[in-house]
C-alpha cells in the first residue's frame, strides 16, 4: 500500500460547466496554471483582425478533408464532406450513435478526503487477505485447505460481479445527473483500486494453492477479467486524488451503457472508452480468439498498422486484450468473444502527434493566435506569438467560452507560448490575454470524431 501523502490543502476543486445531455464543458490545459476565479467572467472586446483558415501550418498542406474549415461572414465554421478517404487521424471508439449522453470537463485536484477513502479501501482489503491466509493455513488437512481456497476464489468472483454492477450503476447515475463529475471519478478510482487488490489476492491464493497437493484454482480467467476496471485515465485520476500527479482536467462523457474519459497528463493525451453494450460477459473463449481480436483491432484502427511496431495479444475467459505500440503512443483494446466486438479502448499518445490538425489563426492586437482543432475531448493546442518580434508569448492567460456562456480561465501559456486544452463538443471561443493585449477566435467547432465503426457497419 502506498503511503498517504501529507497534503496542506484538502479540497478537491471542481470547476465544471454542467449542461444538458450532449453538452461539453470547457477544456483543461497543461500550462503554468492561473489564479483567477474559475467562475470569473472576462469580457473580450470586439477587435478587428484577420482570421486565416488553414490546416498544417508547418507544411501548408490542404489539411484534413474530413473536417475542412470554411469562412462564413468572417466566422470560422466546420463542415464535413462525408468522406475519410484521405484522413490520417487515428480512429477512436466513441459512444453509440444517436445515444443521449452527458458530457463535461471537470477539474479534479489532490484531495485528502478521497485519498483517505482509497487508502481505507486498500487497508481493509489487505486485512481481509491476511484473514484468508490465516484461515487457509489453519485447515487441518489438504482437502480442507483446498475447500477454503476454492471458497476464497468464489468470493473474489462474486466481488468482480459486484464491481461490474457498481460501475454500471455509477455510469447510469452520472448520466441521469445523480452523481457529480467529482463523485463519478472518485467512484471509478475506488472500483479500480478494489480490482487491483482483488488481483493481488488471487496471486496470494495461487501461492497457497501451489503449496497444497493436487490443487489448481485456475484463476487466470478471473484475474484477467479484473483488468477491465483499470485504464490510463483512471490511473491518472487515482494518482491525482492521492496527490502524486499534477491536478488537471478530465473529460467525462457517459451514457446508459458506457463512458468516455480523456485527460492531458504532462506531454501525453490519455483516452479511455468503455462500451458495455459491446461486452458479452457470457461468451466463452476459443482458440482462434487472439488472431480474431488482432484482426478486428487492426481493421477498426486502419492507420495503426501503418505506423505500429509488433502487436501482442493476451486473453482468457471470453476477453482478449490487444496491445499495439506505435510511433508516439500505444493503443490497447479489449475484444469480447462471441461477436468479437471491441468494448474497451485505451489510448496513450504524445501530444505532438496531434500537431498536424486543422488550424485557425488570427492576428489581433499584435498577437498571432493559432488554435489547432480536434474532435470532442481531444487535445487542442493554443499558441500565442508576438507579431512584432516573433517570440512566443509566455504566461498569457487563456480562456474558453462555450456557446453563450461566460469565458472561463483554463490556464496560461508555457515558455513556448503554448497551452493544450481538451476540446469542447460545441462551438466555442478561445481568447488569449497578454495584458493589455487581447486576441480571440470565435465559433471554433470541433472536427468530426474519427469513429471506429459500429458493429452493424463493421465488415468481418
Automatic annotation (TrEMBL):
Where does the DUF7094 domain lie?
Answer: 250-354
Pfam families, per this entry?
A: DUF7094, DUF7096, Fn3_arc
Give me the ranges of the annotated region Disordered: 51-89
Q: Which residues form the DUF7096 domain?
A: 2-244
What InterPro entries has UniProt attached to this entry? DUF7094, DUF7096, Fn3_arc
Q: Where is the composition biased (Polar residues)?
A: 69-83
Fibronectin-III type-like domain: residues covered: 359-436
Write the protein's name. Answer: Uncharacterized protein
Source organism (scientific name): Halopenitus malekzadehii
Taxonomic placement: Archaea, Methanobacteriati, Methanobacteriota, Stenosarchaea group, Halobacteria
Amino acid at each position: 500500500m502506498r503511503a498517504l501523502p501529507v497534503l496542506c490543502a484538502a479540497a478537491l476543486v471542481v470547476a465544471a460547466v454542467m449542461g444538458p445531455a450532449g453538452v461539453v464543458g470547457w477544456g483543461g490545459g497543461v500550462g503554468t496554471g492561473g489564479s483567477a476565479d474559475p467562475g470569473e467572467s472576462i469580457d473580450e472586446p470586439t477587435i478587428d483582425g484577420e482570421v486565416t483558415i488553414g490546416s498544417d501550418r508547418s507544411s501548408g498542406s490542404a489539411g484534413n478533408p474530413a473536417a475542412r474549415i470554411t469562412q462564413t461572414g468572417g466566422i470560422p465554421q466546420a463542415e464535413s464532406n462525408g468522406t475519410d478517404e484521405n484522413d490520417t487521424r487515428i480512429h477512436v471508439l466513441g459512444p453509440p450513435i444517436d445515444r443521449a449522453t452527458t458530457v463535461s470537463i471537470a477539474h479534479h485536484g489532490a484531495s485528502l478526503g478521497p485519498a483517505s477513502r482509497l487508502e481505507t479501501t486498500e487497508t481493509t482489503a489487505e486485512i481481509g487477505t491476511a484473514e484468508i491466509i490465516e484461515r487457509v493455513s489453519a485447515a487441518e488437512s489438504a482437502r480442507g485447505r483446498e475447500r477454503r481456497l476454492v471458497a476464497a476464489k468464489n468470493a473474489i468472483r462474486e466481488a468482480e460481479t459486484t464491481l461490474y454492477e457498481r460501475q454500471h450503476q455509477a455510469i447510469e447515475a452520472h448520466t441521469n445527473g445523480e452523481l457529480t463529475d467529482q463523485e463519478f471519478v472518485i467512484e471509478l478510482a475506488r472500483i479500480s483500486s478494489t480490482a487491483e487488490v482483488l488481483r493481488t489476492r488471487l496471486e496470494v491464493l495461487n501461492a497457497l494453492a501451489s503449496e497444497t497437493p493436487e490443487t489448481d484454482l485456475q484463476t487466470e480467467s478471473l484475474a484477467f477479467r479484473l483488468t477491465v476496471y483499470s485504464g490510463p485515465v483512471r490511473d491518472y485520476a487515482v494518482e491525482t486524488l492521492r496527490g502524486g500527479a499534477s491536478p488537471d482536467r478530465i473529460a467525462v462523457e457517459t451514457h446508459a451503457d458506457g463512458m468516455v474519459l480523456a485527460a492531458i497528463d504532462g506531454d501525453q493525451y490519455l483516452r479511455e472508452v468503455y462500451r458495455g453494450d459491446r461486452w458479452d460477459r457470457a461468451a466463452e473463449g476459443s482458440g482462434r480468439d487472439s488472431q480474431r481480436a488482432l484482426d478486428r483491432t487492426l481493421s477498426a484502427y486502419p492507420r495503426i498498422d501503418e505506423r505500429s511496431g509488433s502487436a501482442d495479444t493476451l486473453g482468457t475467459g471470453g476477453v482478449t486484450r490487444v496491445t499495439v505500440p506505435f510511433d508516439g503512443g500505444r493503443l490497447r483494446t479489449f475484444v469480447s468473444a462471441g461477436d468479437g466486438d471491441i468494448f474497451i479502448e485505451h489510448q496513450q499518445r504524445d501530444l505532438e502527434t496531434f500537431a498536424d490538425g486543422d488550424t485557425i489563426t488570427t492576428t489581433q492586437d499584435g498577437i498571432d493566435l493559432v488554435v489547432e482543432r480536434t474532435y470532442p475531448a481531444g487535445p487542442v493546442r493554443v499558441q500565442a506569438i508576438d507579431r512584432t518580434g516573433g517570440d512566443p508569448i509566455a504566461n498569457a492567460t487563456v480562456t474558453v467560452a462555450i456557446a453563450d456562456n461566460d469565458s472561463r480561465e483554463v490556464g496560461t501559456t508555457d515558455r513556448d507560448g503554448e497551452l493544450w486544452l481538451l476540446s469542447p463538443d460545441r462551438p466555442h471561443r478561445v481568447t488569449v490575454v497578454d495584458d493589455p493585449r487581447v486576441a480571440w477566435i470565435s465559433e471554433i467547432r470541433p472536427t468530426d470524431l474519427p469513429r471506429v465503426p459500429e458493429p452493424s457497419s463493421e465488415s468481418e
